[in-house]
Amino acid sequence: MKLVYAALLLHSLGKEVDEAGVKKVMEAAGASVEAAEIKALVANLKEVNIEEAIKGASIMQAAAPAAAESKGEEKKEEKAEEKKEEKAEEAAAGLGALFG
Question: What's the total number of domains in the chain?
Fold first, then answer.
């Protein structure tokens, strides 16, 4: 994950995301990383439009709370319906006791 942050930092500064740049960022942060890991990251990012990936991630983050909120509302509605059903059953039981 640290390597991805290094790549994002380089991208946000308008620098090319290459092995040398990522290595410099990691060294400046005091982290030790194997050259193979850096090489793999850079190779995987060659085909990725970082701006589009960031926008896609932002959309997903914005959608997640809305989805969670709608699930919460559904649960509240279900609980309210269950309580209404329980009250109706209790009322029916009480009436049954009157007429015995």
Answer: 1
